[in-house]
From TrEMBL:
NCBIfam families: HEQRo_perm_3TM (TIGR01726)
Membrane topology designation: Multi-pass membrane protein
Name the record gives this protein: Amino acid ABC transporter permease
Biased composition (Basic and acidic residues): 317-334
Chain intervals for the UniProt region annotation (Disordered): 307-334
Assigned keywords, A-Z: Amino-acid transport, Cell membrane, Membrane, Transmembrane, Transmembrane helix, Transport
GO molecular function: transmembrane transporter activity
Pfam families named in the record: BPD_transp_1
Domain ABC transmembrane type-1 span(s) in chain numbering: 68-275
Record-level GO BP terms: amino acid transport
Primary site of residence: membrane
Subcellular location: Cell membrane
Amino acid sequence: MSDSRTPGHEVPEPIQAIKLRHPWRNVFAVVVLAMVALFLYDAAFNRPVYAWDEVGKYLFDVRVISAIGYTLQLTIYSMIIAIVLGVILAVMRLSPNPVLRSVAWAFLWVFRGTPVYVQLTFWGLVGVVYKTIDIGIPFQEPWFQFDTQAMLSYFTLAVIGLALNESAYMAEIVRAGLLAVDKGQEEAAVALGLGWWHTMSRIVLPQAMRVIIPPTGNEVISMLKTTSLVIAVPFTLELYTRTRDIAAVTYKPVPMLIVASIWYLLITSILMVGQYYLERYFAKGVGARPDTVKPLTPTEAVAIQRANETEAVAPADRNDDPDTRWPDGERSRS
């Protein structure tokens, strides 16, 4: 029995890949790990100023836990207001009305062009600038009058200051997300008879969220850390200021800074995990490649089958036998 494999269709030998070596990369990694280990050892045993016992003592202190609650409230309330205002400002920026575009641009110009600490300081002095809040017809006796300092607490002023500053950045993030959606999507929705609300909520925004979510997550994390500046209002019950007040009593500022840093890192890590899952949810189907269609028969088997058919139809002595010049024994017609 002859071998079914033809010389032109021999099975190639498997390739033996040799892994590329990177000796200097390994050396660099060892050096970095050694430096990290030396730093941790030095911080743990050779730096008494860190006072790790004080860190453990105040890490779960009632005052620190209460300050974490205020920090989270400042972050959540400010971001909710900032996102709502940011969407409104983004729509105003994209509006064909020149007045709305100009007002939105002026708002962004002011709140993005001045430091957030300066803005918070101004909001802390708003009770001095505007002693009362009057409601009524201009240039007439007010219908209602409220004392500003009695009506607006420092916590409320801190939320307002953080939210207005953040809304300017959120407006640009939302505007970038809306502009990232192809104009043809909106035109197709209009052609189908969808109104503005359904077009935005069902067509444009779901696609824009893929662009909006990553920077928004970064802004939430940034807002968490920006709450440490509300001392300018002054609001003194958030995490950083509370640990600083404790350090003023214990005369050990470094351990309290470590306590605040540990809690900031923990909350930031949780927010980063949430951001990761949100990004993955809104990025479904983006950049996905279709599955490769695998052949039902291996390429090697097809080649061998064709070679066998050729041998069966055209044997080596076909030139001597006129009956085998044509398939199925057909003779050539003169």
